[in-house]
Backbone:
């Protein structure tokens, strides 16, 4: 995979995947975007002190780090599963500046990246991670999730991730009242969610994005 680090407008890094010419985050601010979508409107919307999360696309580890920080701060115990078929090279993730901006330790950030794949790892009393090197289509789980962080590449660059069969899979991975949260609010995507039986909420987006989507299994 051909990748390079790019700076976004809030000073935080993102990764540019040169093969498809798409960044992992918004150019308006990787941290600002991830906090707004996945923390404020994902994790904190649930209002539970125990939760199971599936992240689709581990990538830079930013969503994982933000969730881990919030879990400890708000006393939320989290089982965190994250999948990634194309893990970043060490030379790339070791340069990412998230821990500096978030005022946390580099060791903690690297612990997330360096911990074993395919194994449940305790990071602290609040955060239990399992990273799996697989694609969503090949992923199987005997756990059902309260939240899915759906952070795939855009429908334009990776249309198969936004197909009815993949989104039906996400629906079946959720608990009743569980939800998927994502940056995408494209009409065709919402029509597929509707067809599958998801309840859709349209939420204000972060800077540079009008709307995002939260879709619940009822
Ligand atoms: C928009 S990036 C977001 C990554 C990550 N959440 C972050 O904050 O850095 C999309 C991620 O999905 C991963 N991905 C690509 N195909 C996938 C698949 N079939 N299943 C799961 N993840 C996939 C990519 O490699 C990439 O890391």
Residues:
């Amino acid at each position: 995979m051909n990748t390079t680090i790019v700076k976004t407008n809030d000073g935080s890094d993102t990764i540019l995947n040169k093969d498809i010419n798409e960044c992992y985050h918004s150019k308006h601010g990787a941290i600002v975007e991830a906090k707004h979508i996945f923390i404020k409107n994902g994790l904190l919307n649930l209002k539970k002190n125990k939760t199971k999360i599936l992240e689709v696309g581990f990538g830079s580890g930013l969503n994982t780090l933000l969730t881990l920080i919030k879990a400890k701060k708000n006393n939320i115990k989290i089982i965190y599963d994250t999948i990634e078929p194309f893990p970043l090279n060490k030379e790339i993730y070791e340069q990412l500046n998230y821990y500096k901006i978030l005022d946390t330790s580099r060791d903690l950030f690297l612990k997330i990246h360096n911990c074993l794949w395919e194994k449940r790892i305790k990071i602290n009393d609040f955060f239990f991670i399992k990273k799996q090197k697989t694609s969503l289509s090949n992923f199987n789980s005997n756990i059902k999730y309260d939240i899915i962080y759906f952070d795939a590449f855009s429908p334009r660059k990776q249309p198969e991730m936004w197909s009815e069969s993949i989104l039906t899979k996400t629906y079946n991975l959720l608990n009743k009242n569980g939800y998927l949260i994502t940056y995408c609010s494209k009409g065709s995507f919402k029509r597929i969610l509707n067809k599958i039986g998801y309840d859709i909420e349209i939420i204000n987006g972060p800077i540079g994005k009008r709307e995002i989507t939260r879709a619940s299994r009822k």
Notes: The chain has one domain: 29-216. The two ends are 39 Å apart (CA to CA). The first helix runs from residue 30 to 46. Residues 24, 34, 56-57, 59-60, 62-63, 83-86, 135-136, 151-153, 161 surround S-adenosylmethionine (CB under 6 Å).
